[in-house]
Amino acid sequence: MAGLVRSLDTAAADAPMAAVVVETVQGEGGVNPARPVWLRTLAPWTQAHGALLIVDDIQMGCGRTGPFFSFERAGIIPDLVCLSKSLSGYGMPMALTLLRPEYDVWKPGEHNGTFRGYDPAFVTAARTLELFWSDGALEARTAALGERVGGTLARTAHRYGLPAPRGLGLAWALPFDRPGAAREVCDAAYRSGLLLETAGPYDEVAKLLPPLTVTDEQLTHGLDTLDAAVASVAGARTLAV
User: Where does a domain end: 132, 153, 188?
Assistant: First the structure.
């Protein structure tokens, strides 16, 4: 953690830092979970230096990693939180920015516009919170399914000599060493009815984001389809370098 502090101190040496924006689990970056201790080091640094801590929870929030907010596992409280994606609960366009009360200082008419909100999305979002977040059932199930996905991907990785998978809850990455292999696997899975996408700086991982409401049967079918896609590519060429 000393390296993190040195990096932040260096970045803030020439001018005050206004804010630090962080994904607690990188999404497009390749599903890289930040360690809780890393986040717990970052949070007090921002406070000590008068910088806002902004968590981008657009992709990994709303229960994707288990808890509603992805940063809950670290026990930190950001200054601002960005939410979207599954927030509406029904595929409707919706995005929110949550902020501490002391930063809610808009003047009358300062934050307005005809494009600020889509009423049906507010209705479905409220209903989603009532249905799925009135107790801890969804969070517990997501954690259990995440362990299942992680175990299955670990066996697939071992079978084909791939790097270890990584993820939290229902956000997982299956990495590949050979350039282009992740895209080939995603293409093969798509031909069998499974939608994946590549992620990472070099599109080197296949990213899995199953619906939080996925059934056991659907998850089994999806994981079997992915394994078959990896096997089909492995049969044509070596996946590892």
Answer: 132
